[in-house]
Amino acid sequence: MRRIIDLCKRVPLLPITIISALPIALLWGFRPWGHSLGSLDPSLGQYIIIALVAYTVVDTIIGMVDDLRHGHVGVDILAVMAILSTVAVGEYWAAWTVVLMVWSGEAIEEYAQSKAESNLTALIKAAPQTAHVAALPGVGSAAGRAQHGENGFHKTADATSADRADDSPTSTAPATDDSNVHFRTIPVEEVKLDDVLTVLPGETVPVDGVLMSGQATLDLSNINGEPVPREVFAGARVMSGAVNGSTAFTMRATQLSHDSQYQRILELVASAQNSRATVVKTADILAVPFTVISLIIACVAWGVSGVPTRFAQVLVLATPCPLLIAAPVAYMAGTGRLAKAGILIKAQDILENLGRVSHIFFDKTGTLTVKQPQVVRVDLLPDAGAGIPMRVTEAGTAAMVGRPAGDAAVAAAVVAGGSGADAAGTGAGSAHARLDKDHILMLAGVVETYSVHILAKGIVKAGAAAIDRLHDRFDKGNRNCAQPATDPGHRRGDYPVVKNIHEDAGKGITGTVNGLDVSVGRFAYVTQGQVDAGLQPQSATPLDFFPDSRYGGLAPDEMATYVAVNGKLAARIVMKDIPRPNAKESLQRLRDLGVKHLTMVTGDKEPSARIIADEVGISDVHSELLPEDKVNTVRSAAQDKVAPQPWWDRIIQKLVGESTTRPVSMMVGDGVNDAPVLAAADIGMAMTDGTTTAASESAQVVIMNDDIACVPKAIAIARRTKRVMLQAVIAGLSLAIVGMVCAAFNLIPAVVGAFLQELIDVVSILWALTALLDRE
Questions:
Q1: What is the pLDDT of residue 398?
Q2: Which residues pair with 689 in a beta bridge?
Q3: Taking a C-beta distance cutoff of 8 angstroms, is the pair 685, 666 a contact?
């Protein structure tokens, strides 16, 4: 009921026309002035119809003029002529019916547009409107500028300085009791850089910033469609548009409202809403010959029959709505369907061109492969951990020799869950700790958490999985540990104690994890301690410790990071670029859609590129390319595929400025370092996870959920949108022409024709709305 009321408010003449039927019927034969107008002698009820007709005609003509001013073809002249002709021949009820159809058509168009834009409207409604700025002494933008660096992070002393040797390696936000924070609420546009903001439970993050509270749970579905809330910790970036969980948190603003992530998304939405696809412009133009055809049929019917009523009967069925309404509604619905799938476009022309893509170029790293190299195996030296002496008590509890029990925390997460072979047994005596692959990954992952190196994230991910496996073993009762079970690291939710983090850029990182000195990085970096102690020559190489005969050589696409524990080399972690799990399936889906030309363009070396290409199913590979080489590759491929242009397409191109048969190329990349080649292709598609700038200046399509499966999905949605649009237009125009011919032979009265015309409009518009449905 509320929707009906809102619709009536937007189109007030619809309820007025409906309600007027009662006084028109009651006053149909009432003429208080007598019979003074000769043959044209309207009654009072008929004058009500004339008044409705006059208002409708004036309003329609004003709308036509406004359409022409905005570059759209105004062909509502058919409706004007139909209304006036029915009045002229004395078909007053037919005139009333046509007026009703005009305003009900307006209401249907409003409904269809709102329905088609529903997914886009949902994004707009979710936009943050207000922000809570902390109002405590010493807190705010001024304090932020004094205490924070350019990136909004708290300035701390060097973690390697002697007086901070035992402190945590990362900055910690001041303890904040969020429930007691005083704040003032302001419009989001008034938020300043470095303002400290409070985000209450269930609220939307107002601007981009950095988390100050210890942790927060954020729903990112509005940004990248991610279904599971993401847990973030102090110092993490938080993006506008994310929805807070059940606990309030504080953050520091690092972007103004108009520069924040969600505002960029809204700019893409607005750009798509305000644009018009080439096929929609063509539909506008085709409405003109349809109008001419309708007038010809009406004039012939009148001339042949000699009955002027036939003219009115034909025109009431002449509806260009399938062209003027159904076509743009279908494309707006397709745009909304893409948005629901996490795919944003900058203009509706892109939606049309997506359906005609014939050649797709893919970047390798981060597009066909995962964002960072992943751990594929751990090569463990036979004596890994032999430098960690252990003592096994009669009670079966192990402890490090020469270290306090509290510092022997290796067992908390390092030796936790070791098998019987990992410890010497239950009798008294001495043994050495044996580190397995999960222990190495855990140690390396914990240390790499504090690194900014490109390989760090892959090791951190593998380390987190290793900790989970160690916890599983501990939970199952495998507890041959070097320290009591009450120490940190044993239970889920615990985290190893980390100290003395120091990173040498480009070389490696060191730190103390549960009492163990851990080094991760290049071979020379992690073995320097052994060289200094005279345990190995300066000329030693990785092959001296990891011979190919035993461990196998590194493949062309593999790289190694080395790990030392307590100054002794323990293992190497082998990493490589691995294809996305659904990359091969997605590329096969593209071939099934008829996109036969798939090409990889990468700056990587030929052997590495070929390995990934073979795994995902791409035969055309261009490797070792600089950015300008990628641009030239895409442009030359487009020029090679130029085909003769049909005569009818040349006419369309002259009318609307765009060819509908030209081959379309698309480049898929990360939207940042691929900016030049994204701009060179007909369509640039940037894949992001919502944590990078969505509105890349060079990309016309942005995938917000970092899923390569969205590439074939976008093409499928675009093609179905155009197919639905054509079906709606052809069906509507065909029914209208059949109806006009029948009316010309006096088979359809004017009143009935007006209702049939509205039925045709409804059918075509509702069919256009099926572009919203997910049928792929």
A1: 42
A2: none
A3: yes
